[in-house]
Structure formats: C-alpha cells, structure tokens
Design a protein that fits this description.
Number of strands: 9
Largest sheet: 5 strands, mixed
Shape: globular
Strand order of the largest sheet: 4-6-7-9-8
Oligomer: single chain
Radius of gyration: 16 Å
C-alpha cells in the first residue's frame, strides 16, 4: 500500500492516533461485487451469519474506492453491529446497497439492537471514544477518515431502542 499517513503520533502505549490522512489511492470498482465478496469473506459464526441479510442491486455500479479500506470499514461496522446484537441478546443486521437519484451509491449497515443513544451519537466518530471495556476508540474514527479519504461520507442514523444505521455514500461513476 502507498503511504497514507502524513503524521502518526503514538499515545498511551501502542495506541496509534491518526492526525491526518492523505487522499487514499483508489480505482474504479464494481461496488456490488466488492460488497458481496467482503460479506462472504467475513468470519461469521453460523449464528452470526443467520442474523445478517444482504440486499444489493443486480447490476454493476462503478465507484472509485480502495478495496482494502472499504473492507476494513465494512468489517468494523459489522463487528460493532454484532457486538450490539450480543449485548441485547437478539436482533438482525441488514446490509444494503442502493443507488439514489442524486448519483450517489449508499451502502448501509443497519442493526435492530437499538442501543444507540444521543449521548453516544454525539461523540461516536471522535478519536479515543468507546463504549466498550476493551475498545481503543479508534475504529469509527478511522472508518470516517478512510471513507472521506475515498471521496465518500459516513453518517449515522438511529432511533433509540429501534435501530442503528451507518450509511456510507459514494459518488457513482458515469
């Protein structure tokens, strides 16, 4: 991989903080096939796999992206959603991909655990913010930087006690 970090600062032992991220190298890929492959590659247990559904269009959708970084982001979002389902003891995860009229492609990871709160949502993308006992607080912070480095955006939508949904938006290539 190309060097993507302008500056890396070490804090608190082995924890790495990213101060800034350069434009991530990317190329035109069919996001539909990339997402299908990434979900198939995730090391789910049988119980976890049963809780997940994937809905994608039947056509190809070209998007400028970096497969390694998209894999990291998608795996982190799935891992967090699985954690929430485990905490609640039930729920489902829906991963979907759709094209919208604005020319954007939206990749959503939605869980029905409903554990998101307004307090947590306010700080969710901040570095070192975590709700987990063993979390570093860098996962979603890095995810947001990686998606933005690919020219996209990462946003949160939620309704307490109902669902939490992370939306990745990318511009569709013509």
């Amino acid at each position: 991989l190309e060097k993507i970090f302008k500056e890396v600062e070490l804090r608190q032992g082995n924890t790495v903080v990213l101060n800034s991220i350069e434009d991530i190298s990317r190329s035109s890929k069919d996001i539909v096939s990339v997402v299908k492959e990434l979900v198939e590659d995730y090391p789910f247990s049988e119980k976890e796999r049963a809780a997940i559904s994937l809905k994608t269009p039947e056509k190809t959708i070209p998007v400028q992206l970096n497969v390694v970084f998209l894999k990291y982001v998608l795996f982190n979002l799935i891992k967090n959603a699985l954690y929430c389902l485990k905490e609640k003891g039930e729920g489902k995860i829906k991963i979907s991909l759709k094209e919208v009229s604005s020319g954007q492609v939206i990749l959503s990871v939605n869980d029905t655990a409903g554990l998101m709160t307004q307090t947590v949502a306010r700080s969710l993308f901040d570095d070192f913010f975590t709700t987990k006992k063993s979390g570093s607080g860098l996962g979603l912070f890095f995810c947001k930087q990686a998606v933005e480095g690919m020219g996209g955006s990462l946003s949160l939508e939620y309704k307490e006690m109902k669902y939490t949904c992370f939306n990745l938006a990318f511009k569709r290539e013509k």
